[in-house]
Amino acid sequence: MIKTRASGRTVGGLRTLSLQAPAVTLLFLWMIVPLAMTLWFSLQRYNLLMPGMGGFAGLENYEFLLTDPALWSAMGTTLLLVGWVLAITVVGGTLLAVLFQQEFMGRGIARVLAISPFFVMPTVSALVWKNMMMHPSNGVLAWLSKSLGLPVIDWFSSLPLTSVIIIVAWQWLPFALLILLTAMQSLDDDQVEAARMDGAGPLAIFFYITLPHLKRAISVVIMIEMIFLLTIFAEIFVTTSGGPGLATTNLAYLIYIRALLDFDVGTASAGGVIAIILANIVAIFLVRMVAKNLEN
Amino acid sequence: MNTTTTAKTAVAPAHVSIGDVARAQRWRKVGMALLGWAVALLIFFPIFWMIITGFKTETDAVADPTLIFSPTLESYAAVQGRADYLKFALNSVAVSFGSTLLALLIAIPSAYAMAFLPTKRTKGTLLWMLSTKMLPSVGVLVPIYLIFRDVGLLDTRTGLIIVYTLMNLPIVVWMLYTFFKDLPKDILEAGRMDGAGTLQEVWYLLLPLTLPGIASTGLLSVILSWNEAFWSLNLTTSNAAPLTAYIASFSSPEGLFWAKLSAASTMAIAPILIFGWLTQKQMVRGLTFGAVK
């Protein structure tokens, strides 16, 4: 009896291994090969503009980067960007989900319109916001404030990070809405009705029934968005190119500047290694926290 | 709806008539409709404005915002004269659907193993997979670029398909895992009792039962691949360039030509936007089974 079970488990283990093998092997290679190469480059003097200057650099690249104020500013920007967009999309998405759960005329079409920005490629949405919405002289927002007699805001020079946050939040709000709306559909109507009978107001219902019900879905939104927001690139590339100064340079963009604009493969690789370490720290803390939430 | 009305009347004080309650509800509905539509239109406005601008002349495009103008197709003609839209669009279709199919093919066995044959390491493996997504692509661009150059994958659809497959694999595995895990174990058990092998079990039981979930996973993967800009811009030049590259080619030199840029942008997002509109119900239906319930 014990023997069969034991052998059954080994067979199971083997099956698990063979079924998992393709995905795990591919992802492992996808991660480890570039990682090893990045690590190697990060220890080299490797600047494409100075071909004669090669050779082993030791930790020089890291020292150069870690003493560079740009790195710390980029880390701060990364966290601000992720934090604000998460806050806006989760709060906004929840409110919108409650709104679009109500029955009203043409609700289906209104929902589809509200979800649409998620399907738009980041490059296009960044271009549209930059040129047609936030442009200081011809943009719709400028025209609006002019019509209302308010001062015109030059979004990208006076509020650069805010502008990027607005664009990114606009793109991800529909995603949060889509997921949370889905979750709302399994909300038990009888429970809500019972609470209403007991005299609970809309606010009480929201905080004591709807919100706890959405906990799992909110965790999903946070986890997926975090994965994408940590490496935001296209929106910054198209709108501000990381500027003015370093105002909108996040970690991903800083590495891009070093690697592709300064042609400094060594330093860029060191930045890549630092970004990878940071990503893993975030993965360990936040994802684990969210994953625990998903289990319940 | 009926229960709501009765419930409302039951708690309403005696001096409030049924007519009042009904009227209040009707007003509430009108208010909701107004609010809902206002919010939806506000969110959709930038896209709407882009579509409209594509039908303007360049002069109208930079004039004060107005809906009154004489629509023209000249921007579309100019855009089409400069770059062959169809070639880029076909690349986008091939790359996003190809990578999605490949990712599903690799992910289904893996998710199956995690859901039905879990070991102590399953949780860890899953988290590790997701953490690979947090690497900034720029961090590993140089090595990938050099490898692709050496094996001749630069500017090929195959190259992009490989990158996108790996890029989306963690999310696809995770989503499928949540769908599979929710399936009652008894069903598969019963199949096994009847002598179904693993393959039959997967093909005749697992896949049909979780099809909505698999479909929404696939749809999400298609959308993410379609809109991916970093790898497509850095790894392709002309042959395999998808629509993201098409837009990029218009954004720099034509930066000041808003109408043409809008026309090109509209054409670049139209297929995926319509695809998204048509499948969003399916996407929501699929998602209700798995992670978000």
Main attributes?
heterodimer, A: 296 residues, 76% helix, B: 293 residues, mainly alpha, 14 helices, flat
**C-alpha termini separation of chain B:** 24 Å
Major beta sheet of chain B, specifics? none
Mean pLDDT of chain A: 79
Q: Which structural class is indicated by helix and strand composition of chain A?
A: mainly alpha
| SS-based class of chain B | mainly alpha
Q: Biggest interface, which chains?
A: A-B, 104 and 93 residues
Question: How is the topology of this model organized?
Answer:
The complex is a heterodimer of chains A (296) and B (293).
Chain A: H1 2-42, H2 60-66, H3 69-101, H4 107-115, H5 122-133, H6 140-147, H7 155-158, H8 160-184, H9 189-197, H10 202-229, H11 234-239, H12 251-261, H13 265-295
Helix pairs in contact in A: 1-13, 2-13, 3-8, 3-10, 3-12, 5-8, 8-10, 10-13, 12-13
Chain B: H1 2-11, H2 18-54, H3 58-62, H4 74-82, H5 85-116, H6 122-132, H7 137-151, H8 157-181, H9 185-193, H10 198-209, H11 211-227, H12 230-235, H13 243-251, H14 258-287
